[in-house]
Amino acid sequence: MPINAEWHRAHRMPPRATELQRAQWHLEHAQHCACRPIPPKLAARMRELGMTPPES
Predict the structure, then answer these.
(1) How far is the C-alpha of 41 from the C-alpha of 25, rounded, in Å?
(2) What burial class does residue 38 get, using C-beta atoms within 10 Å of its C-beta: 0-12 exposed, 13-18 middle, 19+ buried?
(3) By the 8 A CB rule, do 23 and 47 touch?
(4) What angle do CA 42, 38, 20 make, to 5 degrees?
């Protein structure tokens, strides 16, 4: 899967990101880069929080 290096440089995960920050970063990441899917545990937690992770 191709990596969008430009997007990654401009959108770093915050240090000590909260669960919500991680979830939001991964949702945005999925829209702009196809280098890897959302980790399964995080995707499950996102669903518990009422968020809809993209299907990988």
Answers:
(1) 15
(2) buried
(3) no
(4) 45
Query: Token digits for 55?
Result: 């299907």
What does pTM read for this prediction?
Answer: 0.86
Closest CA to 43 of 31, 27, 28, 29: 27
Are residues 32 and 4 in contact, defined by beta-carbon separation less than 8 angstroms? Answer: yes
Residue 15: what pLDDT?
Answer: 95
CA 43 to chain centre: 9
The helices-and-strands tally (H runs, E runs) of the chain is 3, 0
Q: What is the pLDDT of residues 14-53, one digit of tens each?
A: 999 999 999 999 999 999 998 999 999 999 999 999 999 9
Backbone angles phi, psi at 38, to 5 degrees: -65, 135
